[in-house]
Amino acid sequence: MATKNAFYAQSGGVTAVINASACGVIETARRHPEAIGTLFAGRNGIIGALTEDLIDTGRESDAAIAALRYTPSGAFGSCRYKLAGLEQNRREYERLIEVFKAHDIGYFFYNGGGDSADTCLKVSQLSEETGLSIRAIHVPKTVDNDLPVTDNCPGFGSVAKYVAVSTREASFDVRSMAKTSTKVFVLEVMGRHAGWIAAAGALASDADTPLPIAILFPEIPFEQDRFLAMVDSLVKEHGYCTVVVSEGVRDTDGTFLADQGLKDAFGHAQLGGVAPVVADIVREGLGLKYHWAVADYLQRSARHIASRTDVEQAYAMGKAAVEFALAGRNSVMPTIVRKSSQPYVWEVGSVALSEVANVEKMMPREYITRDGFGITEACREYLAPLIQGEDYPPYRAGLPAYITLKNEPVEKKLPDFKLP
């Protein structure tokens, strides 16, 4: 394959380490100028490709690209924009091919979750159909940890570390106030269908630091009476307790406790606000004083306390994506393969995108205690290595020194394209 340009974009909710994957992609591409010419980034994800709003990453210095490894969120902008199927919306896919032809793009790297894997798969299928040679590689990312096949997802380890640390620190706070004030603290975390992030809250309690913590998982239907009995028991025994609740918790009828009746761009229920719902249940059912908090963007942007394991794996996935493409591979995603938990050993693997697109990985029931409010030792063994190690960013004047790229646009060559 002659020298071709490459396209990289970030999709969906950003993470503390998605830019580490971008760094892995760009630095690896720069080491192979004989195969990859200019690496363009899409401004605001796939929208940048559709509207031909491309960024020339070649205009950024090596130092600026290296600084991405320590910078949270999406350096090029992300988006929640799902392309419909090829038959329903050929117009947008054909536009992508037009843009790729116009800018001599032969490599497509899409950094995101399950919906992004689906987009990457469709780009690969259409490029084959049209005879345009594009090697499409998906770079895994999602704080929800719900991509199949890969042992874990870049982005998850850092949000898990943040939630575990926050749960421990908040539990210490509540314990100190419980005699005359707050007795229950409720922390809401992300997780629409899978309870991986909520499970991380249970890591706050261990043999050296035992804490009364109850977890509410999306996988376990919420039963109010059982929940109140658990909280009552913990408070009577310890004087206080902390509740970590996933945003995706449902009642026994399958209704989200926090369903606002709205949909996001991917057609998912717009969630948020389950913490005050649970707190009100505690107040009305037990009459206990409470506080609640929503981790929201804080949990996924906390690069200052990122897991070193997560940073290393995020970079490795970006690096592997480019290496796969250079080796002639197409329509695949690099994966994390766990070889051992104690000691923790992992390596890079791969999976066909047809096995990843639009497939969610839930928590196994054997990872949740029989009562439904905690994690088992098997789950702890799985989670513990993912939060290990610190990888602090450089600091300046007491604050993290994060990079903001120039993101200089590339001159357009095609007529404007209107999004729906």
Explain what you see.
The chain has 420 residues and is an alpha/beta fold. It folds into 2 domains: 4-142 and 304-360 and 391-400, Rossmann fold, CATH 3.40.50; 156-303, 3-Layer(aba) Sandwich (Rossmann fold), CATH 3.40.50.460. It is built from 12 helices and 13 strands. A 5-stranded mixed beta sheet has the order 3-2-1-4-5, sandwiched between helices. Strands 7-8-6-9 form a 4-stranded parallel beta sheet, with helices on both faces. The chain has a two-stranded antiparallel ribbon with strand order 10-11. β7 (213-216), α8 (224-238) and β8 form a beta-alpha-beta unit. It is elongated and about 70 Å long. The relative contact order is 0.18. The mean pLDDT is 94.
- How far do the termini sit from each other? 35 Å
Gyration radius, in Å: 22 Å
- What name is given to the CATH topology of the largest domain? Rossmann fold
Element-by-element helix/strand order: EHEHEHHEHEHEHEHEHEHHEEHEE
Return the domain count: 2
What brief labels describe this structure?
420 residues; alpha/beta; Rossmann fold; four-stranded parallel β-sheet; 12 helices
